[in-house]
Amino acid sequence: MTLPSPNTPLYNHPLPEIEDWLRSLGGEQDLQELHCWQVEKPTWKADLWLDIDQITVRYIGAGTDGQDIQRSFKYSLSRQDIEQAVFSGP
Asked: Which of 22, 44, 81, 88 could form a disulfide with 77 if both were Cys (CB 3.0 to 4.6 A apart)?
């Protein structure tokens, strides 16, 4: 996997490279809905969707009241910015 510079907007990455990048960060692709991913870290769990113009992330049960927290990040952000925002957790 040869990714563009971390400062490159995500929309300049080919889809297979985005998928490899998510796998390298511990993401597991849903085999039925290929645009859906799951990530599980020691302190949080999230579902990710590769939408048309953004990545949507839902952190499962991460709110103070146990509710899910959902955030969206435009593909115009750099891969580095998205990685820091999404994978630092809720």
From this structure: 81
